[in-house]
Input
Amino acid sequence: MESKINRYSKQLILINSLFIIIWLVVSVFPFIWTFWGSFKVKADFFSRADWMFAVTGVNTLVETGDTSTVKAYVESWTEGEFWKATMNTAIITVSVVTISLFLGTLGAYALSRSTYKYTFWILIAALIFRAMPHITLVSGYLFPFFQLNVWGILPTTIIVLVAINQPFTLWLLYSFFKTVPKELDESALIDGCTYFQAFRFVIMPVMWPGVVTAGLFSMMLAYNDFTVTSLLLNQQNYTMVPKINAYLGTIEHSGNYMWAVSSVVSATAPLFMIIMFFQRQLISGLTAGAVKG
Amino acid sequence: MPHKTFFWFFFPSGLAMLLFIGLPIISSFFQSLHIEPEQILMEVEKCDPFGCKTETKVDIEATSKLQEEQPLGRFNGLGTYVDRNHLAFDQIKEAWNNSSSMSDFIDIMLNLPFYKALLFTLTFCFAVTPPVVVLGFIVALSINTLTKSLKGPTIFGVILPMIVTPLIGSLVLFWMIDAKGILGSTIQYLFDDPNLSLKSSSQLTWITLIIYGIWHNTPFAFVVFYAALQTVPQDPIEAAIIDGASRYERVRHIVIPHLYPVATFIILICLMDNFRVLEPIIGFAAEGVAQSLSWMIYNDLRSENKMLFGSAGATSMLTIIGVAFLLTPVLIRTWREFRTER
Output
């Protein structure tokens, strides 16, 4: 019915498609360019003579005997110890996601089921905490952490990231729990379950979509973090993002700049895979956030 | 739910937030009241065949002893807040008295580190947000008209700039915009100026950073608008079509009013997130001409052997005050929503 009166005119379709194509190029092209360039040598990717060198790989052919090379990847993963950074990122990401989902689901369930007024103030406090720039928190951590001698190690960073992540996780899961009817756990309580049993055996099984979404956001925060990891970890324990920044800082090695380029690709590829897989959950999470403020 | 059950359910999460978000703010405040201990100087008499001279030297032993006794340094009250690197009251007063014209005074003021950083942070916030809202809305409208099979891949492509971390995102753009990169050389070719580079002047660097900000933030606005577009009621639109309203009129008078609350939400989140801008400055290596408040804190804490806790704490407190200003409307909004919900 709608299609008859609400049909798009030809010009509109044309302008529209053109706009989307341009916007897609703007969004995606930088990543394709970096991906392609990461297989070239520095003289090509940052060519003084002609940017086309980055496409054709003239200098790469001269230097390595082929138009593309995985030299930067091999070197950064072995000599640059990017494998270590990858492992640290994996440890931190998995731990942060697990712990923050565990704490978050418990807390958000309680917030959504309590009818007392203090839940409102707790949520407001969480909102204020969410707005704090991470760097201001880090400036508060450093001194006590030095005194307690817990600076520089992974567990500290994991706990800090979990805490920083809690406000958002709480709000997100709170709005998901609100959509689960109260009658469900009330009937479980009447049947003699404790609150924890009702939560564990009745509510959790229907909450998986919400938990996946919250987990996705925790993952992105832990995986992408720069502020906390670069200042709270010592150099040996660096995760991927501060590691890339460290490659940029040291100029003594001429290959280092290409290490950064190839590491950027190594770091983004898994993230893109995961997002491609869970795109629907990501968008539903952002929507829930928008509706609930 | 009884209080006791609520307490045990919420305890772990609340404890984590209290210990690692609440306490650091207090600890930051305490740090800001202290200042690094001064080095203790001692006079040493040095005698050689030509006579005796007194030299002042740093008494390393006494200094390190003092540092052990007072690891946080000595109490300085609000001294750090008003020193040259922060609010700089003395310098401003002096400039006010000595400068001949208003523009002169503003010039001097904006060269003080804190005000310089504040100017950049606010410029960045307010220059990035409006284009983000407009572009996000247009992209959402366009993608909403696509056929279903095209929507998924298109959305994936469009949200990419948002999901990479700002440091990586800014690096990826920086390598293209660099004078030796594809965009940089194209711009040089277009303007026929081989020395033109986006790093050559501070204005150009600021513009580059702002363009990056728009690129990074638009997907967020798009996703929220796109979700909200699905909730636009169909009846008034159909009625408008029957009444002969054009597509533009329908968007202008039905869709946009429906999206107003969502737009304010996007604006506030955008302002809040961009107020903490740090990574792009590092990614674009723009520390020389563009400093933000977050960057000032980062810079104070960066060197491992000499961290300026006092200075970082003071800047943090001032930043939090700035965030509080931006946050007030959000809080009022949430409060109202909660009232209506009950």
